[in-house]
């Protein structure tokens, strides 16, 4: 009989439908609330995404998972609260990024400190259901493919005998083990079975500095293991993360998804061929779209792919023109709050922002100066929105246009991670917006960097340094920033989780940091619009 390996993960939920994702150890029929889905096979693994339609709106519905008619979840004797699907109005959204796997028993103290999402799940179990979050947004680095834990290194060593890099995963099965290590944690597994979860990748979900530049791609292409690596990385992302971002109607229209569930045989080759074509998107071809949109009542969530869709030749673009057209089209509408999910921050500490724009200019120079600029880019991770200046300005213009429209939302918040410190920054324009515009960053959830980073990030907010770099940027011909911003909270350090609580056209941003033996400690709270009660 098949057994449950991972999940259930509650993914896409709306007023009348939900999807539940699972991984099993063999082919079987997966049942949830009377609906079923046959597993599909990818190499050694089996998966299913159960689509459940016709649910009552505004309800909280406990559910179980059965494999071939035998109930396997909740686990026998579990003390955790029943998992449930909630088709109620979304008013509380959790978000964060950069969550490395926890240390396993016997490995000693966790070197990067307590896991903020795990701490949230522990606290949540004791809360009444009406205080639970309604949605979770994971903004990248859900796994670290190039920074395996000691347990993962041992597991890799037992399986290998070829030319693979010692400390990195390569194959689909190896990527799968990263997800097992991260998502099988009992508290995380329960949280993801109960709170609908949306996701987007960042670089470590594939490899550090993924698609930083054309030079980086050429360097990777020279590695004998890279082709298998990128095929497996994107195929595993499609299975473990991407398909759960899609609703029933989108799944029904998705040609690849239909091929996968109708295949009746191992689809690893099909998915990896697709992944290889998707990787060529930076060359101007566009086989897929990883960006997506969710509507939570009067809240619109627009999640942007800032990695796979980059244009790295000619005018560098964070997002290709066709993709940006889609973003602009889906950013318009009638809603009270627009949340733009971007794994990489749009508005950064001023010194880092100006430095990235300067580096983009330097890396494009001929000869040794361009080569030096490229080395600095890769060494210092200078690859955020300001390092793609045209895209940085186009996003600023889009947000200004939305914020000054007759039906402007109350708030426009860019939700981000990646930079291993958390902050809130308020944006202003020469021609003011009706909307409150903010950059909200929560990073890391569980991967606190060396303490020297704290000094660097603190200094990057310093006005004298930023002013000097802005003057240098002007001398290098870099246009004036189309938007101004100032920090209203932070920088905050440590493993953290953020939330947005929405009531009508008002919202509240809260940041909590995990502390040893204290659990979560509130370190920031901000009413939106800023200054409101």
Describe this structure in words.
This protein is α+β, with helices and mostly antiparallel strands and 533 residues long. It is built from 15 helices and 23 strands. The protein has helices spanning 116-125, 150-159, 172-183, 186-194, 214-221, 226-242, 248-253, 255-262, 268-279, 321-331, 350-363, 367-380, 389-403, 452-460, 463-475; strands at residues 4-13, 17-24, 29-32, 35-38, 40-42, 45-53, 60-62, 65-67, 70-73, 84-86, 92-96, 135-138, 196-199, 292-296, 299-304, 337-342, 411-416, 422-428, 436-441, 484-492, 496-503, 506-515, 519-528. Helix 3 (172-183) packs across helix 6 (226-242) and helix 11 runs parallel beside helix 15. It is globular, with a radius of gyration of 22 Å.
């Amino acid at each position: 009989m098949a057994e449950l390996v991972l999940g259930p993960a509650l993914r896409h939920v709306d007023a009348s439908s939900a999807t539940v994702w699972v991984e099993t150890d063999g082919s079987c029929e997966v049942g949830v609330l009377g609906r079923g889905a046959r597993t599909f096979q990818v190499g050694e693994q089996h998966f299913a995404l159960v689509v459940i339609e016709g649910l009552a709106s505004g309800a909280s519905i406990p559910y179980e998972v059965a494999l071939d008619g035998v109930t396997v979840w909740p686990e026998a004797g579990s003390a955790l609260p029943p998992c449930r699907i909630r088709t109620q109005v979304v008013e509380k959204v959790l978000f964060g990024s950069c969550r490395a796997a926890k240390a396993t028993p016997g490995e000693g103290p966790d070197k990067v400190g307590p896991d903020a999402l795990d701490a949230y799940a522990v606290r949540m179990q004791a809360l009444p259901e009406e205080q639970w979050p309604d949605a979770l947004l994971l903004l990248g680095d859900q796994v670290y493919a190039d920074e395996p834990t000691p347990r993962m290194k041992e597991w890799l060593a037992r399986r290998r005998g070829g030319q693979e890099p010692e400390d990195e995963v390569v194959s689909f099965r190896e990527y799968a083990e990263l997800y097992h290590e991260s998502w099988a944690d009992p508290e995380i597994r329960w949280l993801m079975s109960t709170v609908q979860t949306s996701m987007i990748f960042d670089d470590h979900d594939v490899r550090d500095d993924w698609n930083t530049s054309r030079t980086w791609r050429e360097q990777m292409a020279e590695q004998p293991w890279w082709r298998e690596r990128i095929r497996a990385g994107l195929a595993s992302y499609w299975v473990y993360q991407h398909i759960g971002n899609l609703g029933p109607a989108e799944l029904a229209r998705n040609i690849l998804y239909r091929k996968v569930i109708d295949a009746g045989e191992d689809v690893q080759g099909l998915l990896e061929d697709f992944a290889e074509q998707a990787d060529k998107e930076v060359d101007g071809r566009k086989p897929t779209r990883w960006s997506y949109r969710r509507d939570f009542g009067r809240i619109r969530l627009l999640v942007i792919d800032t990695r796979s869709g980059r244009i790295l030749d000619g005018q560098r673009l964070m997002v290709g023109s066709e993709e940006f057209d889609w973003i602009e089209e889906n950013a318009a509408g009638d809603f009270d709050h627009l949340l733009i999910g971007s794994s990489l921050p749009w508005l950064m500490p001023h010194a880092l922002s100006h430095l990235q724009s300067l580096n983009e200019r330097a890396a494009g120079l001929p000869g040794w100066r361009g080569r030096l600029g490229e080395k600095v880019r890769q060494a210092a991770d200078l690859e955020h929105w300001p390092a793609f200046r045209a895209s940085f300005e186009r996003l600023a213009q889009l947000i200004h246009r939305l914020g000054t429209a007759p039906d402007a939302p109350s708030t426009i918040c860019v939700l981000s991670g990646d930079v291993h410190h958390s902050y809130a920054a308020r944006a202003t324009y020469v021609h003011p917006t009706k909307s409150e515009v903010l950059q909200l960053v929560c990073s890391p959830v569980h991967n606190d960097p060396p303490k020297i980073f704290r000094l660097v990030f603190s200094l990057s907010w310093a006005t004298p340094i930023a002013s000097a770099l802005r003057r240098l940027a002007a001398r290098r011909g870099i246009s004036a920033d189309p938007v101004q911003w100032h920090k209203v909270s932070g920088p905050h350090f440590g493993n953290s989780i953020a939330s947005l609580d929405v009531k009508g056209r008002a919202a509240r941003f809260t940041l909590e940091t995990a502390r040893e033996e204290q659990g979560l400690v509130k370190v920031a709270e901000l009413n939106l619009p800023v200054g409101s009660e």
